[in-house]
Amino acid sequence: MAIGFKIRERLRERDTEGGFTLVELLVVLVILSLVMGLVGPRVLSYLTDARVRSAKLQIDSLAASLDLFYLDTGRYPSEQEGLKALIARSPSLDNWNGPYLQQSELPLDPWGKPYEYRVPGEKKSYDIVSLGSDGRQGGTDDAADLVNR
């Protein structure tokens, strides 16, 4: 009888120490894994959408700056001058009233690559292009090219 009493007493001591059993920890890890399996893809989708929206907003901002450049100079920058003409004056420009961007350097797209400036554009006088996450022509989803249209 004394042995049974000692075992019960040790169980009570262990319960008062607080702490978690291995089974309890495994249950919590399984629950967290299930939650991350459901929530993780949704969060990554929001991140991808945010980058695409950010690129579109930057392209719109660059297009507005190019329109201001056009109003001052009477023309859009040549392909050789590129988007840098929005920041630094080209020697051939008399009516340049820039800089037309607040930054001292041209912004990179959300994937860390420079925007492409093409003159003439497909539908406009110019195109501003982000090649998306893959950095190559074409693609789908977040790898699709983004162009001002």
Characteristic terms for this protein:
Glycoprotein, Type 4 Pilin; three-stranded antiparallel beta sheet; 149 residues
Question: How would you describe the overall organization of this protein?
Answer:
- 15% of the residues are buried.
- The chain is mostly helical and 149 residues long.
- Strand 1 (116-118) and strand 2 (127-130) form a beta hairpin.
- Helix content is 46%, strand content 6%.
- The protein has helices spanning 2-17, 22-73; strands at residues 116-118, 127-130, 146-147.
- A three-stranded antiparallel beta sheet has the order 1-2-3.
- The mean pLDDT is 81.
- It starts with a helix and ends with a strand.
- It has one domain (40-147): Glycoprotein, Type 4 Pilin (2-Layer Sandwich), CATH 3.30.700.10.
- It is built from two helices and three strands.
Largest sheet: 3 strands, antiparallel
Distance between the termini: 88 Å
Compute the number of helices.
2
Say which CATH homologous superfamily is assigned: Glycoprotein, Type 4 Pilin
Average the pLDDT over all residues and give the rounded result.
81
Cα-based radius of gyration, to the nearest Å: 30 Å
Q: In percent, how much strand structure appears in the residues?
A: 5-15%
CATH topology: Glycoprotein, Type 4 Pilin
Number of strands: 3
Number of domains: 1
Q: What is the assembly state of the chains in this entry?
A: single chain
Q: What gross morphology would you assign? A: rod-shaped
Q: Can you tell me the CATH class?
A: Alpha Beta
CATH architecture: 2-Layer Sandwich
Side-by-side strand order of the widest sheet: 1-2-3
Low-pLDDT runs: none
